[in-house]
Design a protein that fits this description.
105 residues; mainly alpha
Length: 105
Amino acid sequence: MGMADVLRKIKQAEQEAEKQLAEAQAGVGKIAAEARRTSVQMVTDATDESVTETQATLDAARSKANKEAESVAKKGQKTVDAIESSASGNKDKAVASLLDAVSSQ
């Protein structure tokens, strides 16, 4: 093998090495891009899940608060009804007492 053949083989080896380096760099770029896409998707999924869980927690709290408010309103209405009933019975007695007082004078 002559000097020209050796130089040609060296040149071919250099070109092959440059080609492999370029392919490796392209592969690294693809891997990095895929990793970025995956991380963005993971963050998006986590955010969506967090929003869903937060909404469920708020809905549960709102439902519980509404039930408690209904219970308090029912108790309050019972108290109002009892007061009105008592007042109605006392009104008849008060009218009768007033009429007795006016009649006796």
